Amino acid sequence: MQKEVSAEEIVHYYDDTISQYRRIWKLNENMAMHYGFWMDEVRDFGAALAKQNAVTAARAGIQAGEIVLDAGCGVGGSSVFLAKLGCQVKGITLSAKQISLAQANARQHEVSDLTTFEVNDYTKTGYPDASFDVIWAMESVCHADNKRDFIQEAYRLLKPGGRLVLSDGFAVKSSFSTDEQHIINTW
């Protein structure tokens, strides 16, 4: 059985590893903590991260003027990207450190007027029903102990005809060998 991870443990992980993400992921430049989409024309990590946003937005039919919740926004890279498309974006994460970086990234990219960021839990936001055209969750829902809680909250928050855009990694089987379970628990 997989151990549940508390919100405090998630915050601690991201706050504690921010310097490694800055160095290895080039966080200040790439503004993302994702793995990216590695397609034939992609030659470096930054391009893979940009491709992930671009392909996902195109497949989801993101349009200027839409109101988007970036659920698990990290340091705001996707929020900045979506704001540059003309969306009004609210980014939420559990980490106050990430919020500060997201706000700085929005200012640097001159989209502060289209973005807001706050510490909040995407499984229980407290926002009014039908508040968003799009819920965008880029490699963040894997951290929800109960994925159903996230889905129910996203359903509640979406306007009629709204879209849930989710790009993440999930295990497709329910039992693992001892070695596999160790890898999953370590990750």
Widest beta sheet: strand line-up: 3-2-1-4-5
Helix % is 40-55%
Rg over C-alpha atoms, rounded to the nearest angstrom: 16 Å
Number of alpha- plus pi-helical segments: 7
In this structure, how is the largest beta sheet organized?
A: 5 strands, parallel
Structural category: alpha/beta
Low-pLDDT segments: none
Average pLDDT value?
91
Entry keywords:
five-stranded parallel beta sheet; 7 helices; 5 strands; 187 residues; alpha/beta; globular
Structure description:
The chain has seven helices and five strands; from the N terminus they run αααβαβαββαβα. The chain has 187 residues and is of the alpha/beta class. A five-stranded parallel sheet has the order 3-2-1-4-5. The model has no long low-confidence stretch (mean pLDDT 91). β4, α6 and β5 form a beta-alpha-beta unit. It is globular, with a radius of gyration of 16 Å.
